[in-house]
Amino acid sequence: MFRLMRNVHLALGVAFFFVALLFAASSIVIIYRPWFSSGPERSSAAAQLEPGLEARGAALALMRFQGLKGDLRDVKAEGGSVRFLIWRPGTQVNVAYTPEHGRNEA
Questions:
Q1: Following DSSP, what letter does each residue of the chain receive, concatenated?
Q2: What was the pLDDT predicted at 22?
């Protein structure tokens, strides 16, 4: 009986040690967040798309031809161009698209 209790105690102690270690590491990451680079990765590129696309169509074309992945966000029409974001956690692509020429800068 002593041997069984010793082994159970040892196994539970090791398991709780790793849980406490994980808790301590996550606490350090949360408290000292500025020490770790946590900003989104930003990229820039130019591409030619077919003229006359709306923001959703331009985003889908960029995702298909440029290999981008993410969600369409913050669609804004400014003058003759359309600006939007293709976003996913850790990555943000700013896009300015001119529908009449089919030019964009991702």
A1: -HHHHHHHHHHHHHHHHHHHHHHHHHHHHHHTGGGS--SPEEE--EEE--TT--HHHHHHHHHHHH---SEEEEEEEETTEEEEEEEETTEEEEEEEETTTTEEE-
A2: 97
